[in-house]
Amino acid sequence: MISFLVRIIGNAVALYAAYMLVPGFVVSGGIEQYLIAGLGLAILNLTVRPILKAISFPIIILTLGLFTIVINALMLWILDYFLTSLSISDVMALVWATIIISIVNLIVSAIRKIF
């Protein structure tokens, strides 16, 4: 349970970092909207992402893991579809936001493993 809460907070921080660094990636609202978006992203990553990774396993192997960026971008795109507080203006904003969110989540998971 604590691991899931850390994942939600990490996603919220990652979404905030993407908002600050990527023009065209907007989360309107306050901290509660970031936490809702973090919860939505955590649920998508817990349910839909493993299915997509299993289906696209051969492509992931052929691209040496780079196709996971496409899967992560698809998770953000689905989140944008369901949340009205999240707005992604174009594909480049989606790609850069995906990369930033992946890096921040990597850092958060590394810090979580230390403690």
The general outline is globular
How do the strands of the widest beta sheet line up side by side?
1-2
The assigned structural class equals mainly alpha
The number of distinct β-strands equals 2
- Rg estimate, integer Å: 14 Å
> H/E order of the elements?
HEHHHEH
Oligomeric organization of the protein chains: single chain
Largest sheet: 2 strands, antiparallel
- Percent of residues in beta strands? 5-15%
Query: How many H/I helical runs?
Result: 5
- Unreliable segments (pLDDT under 50, ≥5 consecutive)? none
Termini separation: 16 Å
Q: Please, what is the average pLDDT?
A: 94
Binned, the helix content reads: over 70%
Structural account:
The chain is mainly α and 115 residues long. Helices cover 79% and strands 5% of the residues. It contains five helices and two strands; from the N terminus they run H-E-H-H-H-E-H. It has helices at residues 2-21, 31-55, 57-62, 67-82, 91-114; strands spanning 25-27, 86-88. It has a two-stranded antiparallel sheet with strand order 1-2. It is globular, with a radius of gyration of 14 Å. The relative contact order is 0.19.
